[in-house]
């Protein structure tokens, strides 16, 4: 069922809240979400899998102290509209470096057009028993090193949002998983994550099809809007699907 309630895709607070829920779900070693700081530590050696998601005004010194717990783990500070306006300047003054800008994109569920069928592609939801293949499929696209894949599997299996709010999708061609996506139902919107396609199967529309599968699941859940953070390669694909850039995250290391 497609929702018909009017919803402004430029309403970013629920989108950023959905993002915080998703990444906090990976904090099985440590997670914190209080009025001052939101942060998580998965223990996987990847900068997006340990980080500070939000800092309120007056919370920077505490956030820096807490972030020391990352130790040698690569980590990221996410700077979005849900943090205080001077956070980027404070990070730079403390020796931080901006490493990326990530568009936040959104679309109404009923405004995303049907995608063309991809010959030979079948899309299925991923049970717990299928997580190993799912993780090994997205890991190269995400930059997860081979020696971190077992830790990533444990991280996915322990995601705090599973199974009530988080649905994972796998795309198969000739029986092989060649693409992934996920939908998180939180904060009244559908957040789309981990859209990936194996290198040998790119430029066939598989990523768009897996994104559309997540959008369809949002529709079945009567969520009016979907949101995602786009990579450089993904942004033009999402724009063609009807997504609009509504905000940006600035990603820093410190």
Automatic annotation (TrEMBL):
Domain N-acetyltransferase: 121-254
Pfam families cross-referenced by the UniProt entry: Acetyltransf_10 (PF13673)
One of the record's GO molecular function terms: aminoglycoside N-acetyltransferase activity
Superkingdom as given in the UniProt entry: Bacteria
One example of a Gene Ontology biological process annotation: aminoglycoside antibiotic catabolic process
PANTHER family: N-ACETYLTRANSFERASE EIS (PTHR37817:SF1)
Protein name: Acetyltransferase
Top-level taxonomy: Bacteria, Bacillati, Actinomycetota, Actinomycetes, Micromonosporales
């Amino acid at each position: 069922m497609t929702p018909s309630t009017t919803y402004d895709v430029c309403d970013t607070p629920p989108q950023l809240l959905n993002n915080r829920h998703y990444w906090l779900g990976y904090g099985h070693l440590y997670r914190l979400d209080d009025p001052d700081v939101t942060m998580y530590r998965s223990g996987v050696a990847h900068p997006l899998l340990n980080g500070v998601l939000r800092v309120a005004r007056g919370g920077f010194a505490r956030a820096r102290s807490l972030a020391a717990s990352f130790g040698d783990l690569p980590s990221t500070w996410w700077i979005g509209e849900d943090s205080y306006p001077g956070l980027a300047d404070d990070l730079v003054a403390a020796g931080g470096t901006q490493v990326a800008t990530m568009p936040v994109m959104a679309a109404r569920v009923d405004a995303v057009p049907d995608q063309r069928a991809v010959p030979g592609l079948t899309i299925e939801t991923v049970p717990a028993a299928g997580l190993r293949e799912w993780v090994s499929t997205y890991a190269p696209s995400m930059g997860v090193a081979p020696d971190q894949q077992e830790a990533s599997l444990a991280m996915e299996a322990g995601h705090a949002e599973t199974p009530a709010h988080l649905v994972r999708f796998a795309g198969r061609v000739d029986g092989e998983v060649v693409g992934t996506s996920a939908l998180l139902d939180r904060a009244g919107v559908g957040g789309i994550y981990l859209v990936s396609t194996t290198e040998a199967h790119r430029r066939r529309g598989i990523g768009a099809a897996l994104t559309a599968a997540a959008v369809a699941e949002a529709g079945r859940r009567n969520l009016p809007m979907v949101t995602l953070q786009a990579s450089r390669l993904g942004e033009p694909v999402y724009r063609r699907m009807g997504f609009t850039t509504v905000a940006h995250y600035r990603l820093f290391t410190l």
